[in-house]
Each structure stands twice: as C-alpha cells, then as structure tokens.
Amino acid sequence: MKKTIVLLPGDGIGPEVTRAAAAILRESAQEFNHQFEFAEYPLGGAAIDAAGAPLPNETLDACRKADAVFLGAVGGPKWDGLPVGKRPETGLLDLRKGLGLYVNVRPVKLIEPLRGISPLKVDRLGDVDLEIVRELAGGMYFGERGNITEKGVERAWDTESYSTPEIERIATFAYARAENRSRRLCSVDKANVLSSSQLWRRTVTAMSAVYPAVKLEHMYVDNAAMQLTLQPAQFDVMLSGNMFGDILSDAAAALVGSIGLIPSASFGSSAPLFEPIHGSAPSLAGTDSANPIGSILTCGRLPNAGHRRARRARRRLLRLHRDSAGRDAAYV
Ligand code: IPM
Ligand code: MG
Prior knowledge:
The chain is α/β, with parallel strands linked by helices. Helix content is 39%, strand content 21%.
C-alpha cells in the first residue's frame, strides 16, 4: 500500500506526540511492507508565526490531496489574546470544515492494567468501552456569531443550529457503528430546552425504523454527564452534536485515567483526519513528559478505516433516503 500522510504537528506538545506517532507509522510501514510518504505543514499557532494565518492555503491544499492527515494539537498562551477567528483553534476548525469532516469518532476504552489510575472507584468503573460519535461540522462551532455594544453594554452570541440532513448524515454513521458493536445507541441532546435538540431527537427517532436491530435511547446532556460519572459501563455508542460531544468526550476520557490516552478519527468528503483528543498542554511542552499513547492509538485507526466506514455510512444514508420519499441526497 502506498499512501501520502500529511503531518500537522501544531503547537505545545503537538510536535512531540506527532514525532512518536510518525515513528510508529514508519515502523509499521516497514513491518507490513507499506510505503508511507510524509509531508509536514504548519497549522495553528505555528502557522500564525510562520505564515500569518492559522490555516495557510498550502496546508489545506496539501491535506486535500493527502490520503490521510495526522494532527498533533493546537493552541497556547502566546496566541490567547487573539480574537475568535484568528486564533490557532480557528485553523483546526477551518481544516475540519475545509475537508468536509462531519464525523468524529472518539473511542474511550479502559486499558485494564490502568484501572487503578481512574479517578472512579474500581467497582463504579466497570468495563468502560464506549464510543462517542460527535458531529463535527455544524452546531454552535459554525453557527452565526457576533458581538455588539449598545448603550455601553457589550453583548456577544453564538448560534446552535442543525438541519435535518446534517443530523441524518451523522446519525447514519452512529447507527452503523452501533450495529457493529453492541447494537445500543444513546443519542444525547437538550430537547427539554433547545429547538435544535428537538429536531435532533425527532430525526434520530425517525431513522430508527431503518435500523430495527439497534436499541435507541435518548438522554439529556446534563444527565449524560452525570451517568458517565455514576455508571459509565452502561454506554456503548453515544451520538451527540458538536458542542456536547466536545464536552462529554473530555469527561469520558478522564474515566479511563487520562485524556492523553484517547485517539480520534474524523471522516467526511475528502481525506480523513486523525488526532488525539487532548490539547497542546503548553506547560508540558519540551519536558518530554507528554503521554504519546493517544497519538499512537490514533495511528491504529488510520489504515483504510476511514474509507471503509465512510462508504458504509454512505450506503446506509442512500438507503434511508430511498426509504423516505426521495428527498435530496446530494449532501452525502
Ligand atoms: C477537541 C478540541 C477542539 C474542539 C479545540 C482545540 C478547538 O477541544 O478536538 O476536542 O473544541 O473541537
Ligand atoms: Mg475538546
């Protein structure tokens, strides 16, 4: 197999964990007779410093042409004073958008010898093995936002909004994952307060007819956060919007001992993106103490996984659309 992998080391501990990950990829290429070509590009704070923008055009172009993209982490105190839109994190969000990545999968699995480092009591923890399927291209992260000052009072806002097709395409992926795991799907929302969550719940419920083997459950996000702490082993696949998935995945990561252990993979319309879920941990940078396991496990998700899953999700989605009165499937 011959593949081009773009490396985006980013900031803080990003370059260290990316080095560790690339070393594993090189070794596995040798072991299994693959040819991986690596190309490194700046993203985030490193790109602001080198090229004046958090996502330079050359970086996005290279990622679009790659077979896969591996990212370390972005952000740091040096760039904290910058407004939203110019920060290192904007580079990551623009990259996700630019690659059309709407699926983010975050598996949280207890590594048995590490049971003792969980902050939960051993009997509470049980056998944690869950997967968070986070919508990555919509919601409050990409909704309309603004900032005005009226009569000396400043006001800022961000908008949470989801359309039916956006919900269907991520839910399709989550249902397919649930079918391949223990056939349980918990969809997380805040439908007792938010209209966007009511649409989310209605859409996910309507789709359950296409997946009769999957047992669907809905949970409010506040309860989901509590249940993760009380009885995490009850969960298998958890489906959520962008913001709730971001929050719940940090909480779930802590259960198994450290956010430094959790991999993630994102899929969409072009090259898949692989990144550990941790941040740039600036206080650890350069001290050789960052845990590279999250990045290394991320590499394990890399070979072919994206393409296979994306294809399966696409087939499902088309079937759903055939079943549901021929609505426009062009967004697939
Ligand atoms: C994550 C991170 C990012 C996010 C930040 C760095 C923009 O927290 O991948 O979970 O909020 O998506
Ligand atoms: Mg996060």
